[in-house]
Input
Amino acid sequence: MLLVLGGVGTAVFASNLFVDGGSTGTVYAAVALAFGLTVVVGAYAFGPISGGHFNPAVTLGLAAAGRFPWRDALGYIVAQVVGGIVATTLLVLVGLFGPEGWLTTAQEGGFASNGWGELSPGGFGIMAAIIIEVVLTGIFLLVILGVTHPTRGTPLAGLAIGLTLALIHYISIPVDNTSVNPARSIAAAIYGGGDALAQLWVFIVFPIVGGMLAGFAYKALFDGAK
Output
């Protein structure tokens, strides 16, 4: 809920207020930092309780790497999706009491949903979205697994993870509005309209593919005894 409230909330509020006549790049920067900062805050606040995943692709990637029990993955994923939907529902409730036409404009603009083609901020196609989601989610998992390693980790893990997520958004917002998190994508798409829902499958499948590939690869390459 915190991640989607911070990231998607920044996206829908900033986009509706500041893009017309202003700098789109400034909005991109604000959204990237918002997603990164929410992960930093969440990791330090809730990491000691749950591990601080907030992302089905991260949960499954950690399970693939042997860092998280497979039996617990479904419960985490359900909680992540529900938390995200609660957050976007709160944003809609705020919008109901906003300026006239604000909520309609936000939903017609996709409500910060992910997409390709006409739904891509930069007009990129489906293969661009698939590649960017697999690669960047994989990189995200490699960083997470590295900085939280039982013997090689760092107390600054939460900061490193949050900054990595911000960097990922700087790279890929123009491509597909940046998912790397199926729960975030589901939460936005349910209010983003039919086109966003039709393209949602890409942002469920391929972040999970990237996360699990990275989990298996990290275990094979970097978790040995030598």
Q: What stands out?
A: The longest helix spans residues 194-222.
